[in-house]
Amino acid sequence: MDADAFEIEINSHRKLHHESEELEAWHQKGPLGKLHNIISWISRSPQRRDQFEEKVQQVLGPNTKASALIQGNTTRWGGIITH
Prior knowledge:
Blueprint: H1 3-27, H2 31-43, H3 46-60, E1 75-77, E2 80-82
Helix pairs in contact: 1-2
């Protein structure tokens, strides 16, 4: 394995670890945290977004377009952190 490939692998592991910690933190927030995790999971893959769109159309009708899934995040305003 060359140095560049090793660096990419290390960065991927760091990112996965960070994402796992973030998902667990949101999970601790109860139902809204679980909803956040579901939205994050769907949003990470074009195939999952397409499947979500198909399910929305099955339930609400073929002329219905799913609106974009909006992910929650942490926002800082003047030193105050809101969720």
